Amino acid sequence: xxxxxxxxxxxxxxxxxxxxxxxxxxxxxxxxxxxxxxxxxxxxxxxxxxxxxxxxxxxxxxxxxxxxxxxxxxxxxxxxxxxxxxxxxxxxxxxxxxxxxxxxxxxxxxxxxxxxxxxxxxxxxxxxxxxxxxxxxxxxxxx
Length: 143
Description:
- This protein is mainly β.
- It contains one helix and eight strands.
- The strands form two sheets. The protein has a five-stranded mixed β-sheet with strand order 2-8-7-4-5, covered by helices on one side. It has a three-stranded antiparallel β-sheet with strand order 1-3-6, with no helix packed on it.
- The two termini are about 25 Å apart.
């Protein structure tokens, strides 16, 4: 049941990210489309180095988020931490990655919870051909 809830939350995050991403014109409307479709079919590649799966933190600890996102042409990136119990957002960041081929994730969040909290780090990336990928890491934060 927890897995189904997580999947629903991930899909919702992807929908929200897609709506957010519409602001950038991905194709030039004044050009003609070639007869063959040469668009990029490869999703961005996401690597999360830290935190590690089920790493335990105490409330007040600074959680370092490190990793890498690569693609032929990145469009948007979302990094967030949510509570597993209700999906509420504890941390969110949308670094500027437009037109980059790679982006090094190196950010911090100072945890603040009042009770034992299972949480999920989610990294969502989209490229200019609307390929979307995500990766997650589950962590635990103690009061």
